[in-house]
Amino acid sequence: MAASNVKVLGIQASPVVIRVLIALNVKSVAYEFIQEDMSNKSELLLKSNPVHKKIPVLIHGDKPISESLVIVQYIDETWTNGPSILPSNPHDRAIARFWAAYIDEKWFPLMSELGKAQGDEAKEEVKEKLKEALMPLEEAFVKCSKGKAFFGGDNIGYLDIALGCILGWIKTIRLILGVEIFDVAKTPGLVGWADRFLAEKTVKDAILGPEKLFEIARLRLARRDAANAN
Which long-range contacts (CB under 8 A, 24 or more apart) does 56-65 make? Predict the structure, then answer.
């Protein structure tokens, strides 16, 4: 597949965009990445996702697809080469989709809340909520992985991508805020999984390094503090 036939509209630091990039890497699909400015959205983005006007958007030929998990499923079904991303068993596939929805609806909002928390007490409260919300995912990892390296078994799968896309930011939050979210005592399976996931080439090629994410986070915090001061 020529790179010009597959385009991704997004921001490289965005976890939901990272989902798409990892999925394309898993399938060895060449693509063109088009960086978006969300304060000045391109005509291509507005045309490709007129309903939500959000990233990511995958454009395959002249066909746009939006919403990160929908895109990941599309990639898996379109490019059948390489390892499958979604489980082949219908029940396992349904379970993976259930936990992916849990991540988006329950866990990611808490990550956003942590970034906005003001003061040590507020941060500590959100951190405890995050750790509590991770406990069901620890149990899900044990059941889905069946003793193997990833949620998807021997290879990175749908749930690995759904949750793993945020790991770069988790490391950055630890550097900036001193907040440790993955607790080896409470979620040992996820701690080991995170290390293995980040070591995969398909992941390393999609996630920005900690120095770059640190700088992005520092600028965001500076803008937030300046806005609060006005």
Answer: 56/8, 56/9, 56/10, 56/14, 56/16, 56/17, 56/19, 56/20, 57/8, 57/9, 57/10, 58/6, 58/7, 58/8, 58/20, 59/6, 59/7, 59/8, 59/9, 60/5, 60/6, 61/5
Q: CB–CB of 52/66 below 8 Å? A: yes
Tell me: the pLDDT tens digits for 151-185? 999 999 999 999 999 999 898 888 877 788 898 99
- What pLDDT, on the 0 to 100 scale, is given for residue 1? 39
CA–CA distance from 134 to each of 11, 137, 142 (Å)? 26, 5, 13
Residues 192 and 101 in one domain: yes
Domain span at residue 117 reads 90-213
The model's pLDDT over 202-217, given as tens digits with 9 standing for 90+, comes to 999 999 987 888 888 7
In a shared domain, residues 204 and 137: yes
Q: Is 209 exposed, middle or buried (0-12, 13-18, 19+ CB in 10 A)?
A: exposed
Based on the structure, what is the number of domains in the chain?
Answer: 2
**Whole-number Å distance between alpha carbons of 9 and 66:** 10
196 and 148 belong to one structural domain: yes
From CA 50, how far away is CA 148, in angstroms rounded? 41
* Sheet hosting strand 63-66, strand order edge to edge: 32-35, 6-10, 57-60, 63-66
Quote the Cα angle for 172-174-178, to 5°: 140
- 38 Cβ neighbours under 8 A, 6+ residues apart: 11, 55
